[in-house]
């Protein structure tokens, strides 16, 4: 049998008072006597009453709900960002609706429609690798709903963004490899459409030039971030003559997969080939050998992005500021280099 959902009418009947008084007490209206409010709250608790947040949102013109759209859950990066975002949202009295796009543009568009149907007050967004049309994001702007991009950002839209210093992070990674005596450093990068890939590649290229190492296009590969394809590109590198003596990977999952494949090929890491990743995923310290990586302040990305969203909610639309916050990275040297 379906359980009856307790409403303000049930509470009003139980206490023999008006439903408008119950409503005012439950929404914190000041025009309710303290002893009456106490009676109402006690009865609501006893009857296991739950607020209809949609109805409250119609009254207050705010749902007290934020949305976050991420491209995938296959690695620890985005779940950790969500943890940071959820912590800050909770502190501010907001709930967080979470959706992931599975690296699909069509699913991402559908996710934005879900956010709109739930009447979220604002949205945090990290795009899929396929996204190159931004109309579904611009819908939020047209409706006066603030958005903040993080990690994978849209350069075309003038809105707040949270990024890390991908360029300097890549510079530190490649410089470290060069100082270990490596001279044929390969770069396994991601989609050229993503700004993080562009910045990390730029850091790689400029650091090679800084140390007088010629850029070799044979040592640079872009791929679609599908981990099952890493084997193809690692085998390509291993079959070069001479082969690379180091690999700078776009992220830790790519680097960890490379470590396994290079070990299977009978080569020693870092003696034959050194490996450096990017992000400091949970598994990077557990793989053997442990992975040298560029650490990002992952949870902080979520907290800062949420704060930028809250800042906009406190202002009129005309006063919104398209601030870009860049967080620092830190090279963590482990056994893979």
From TrEMBL:
Gene3D superfamilies membership: 3.40.50.2300, lambda repressor-like DNA-binding domains
Superkingdom of source: Bacteria
Keywords: DNA-binding, Transcription, Transcription regulation
GO molecular function, one term: transcription cis-regulatory region binding
Annotated HTH lacI-type domain residues: 6-60
Source organism (scientific name): Pedobacter miscanthi
PANTHER family in the record: HTH-TYPE TRANSCRIPTIONAL REGULATOR GALS, LACI-RELATED TRANSCRIPTIONAL REPRESSOR
Pfam families per record: LacI, Peripla_BP_1
Keyword Hydrolase: no
Name recorded for this polypeptide: LacI family transcriptional regulator
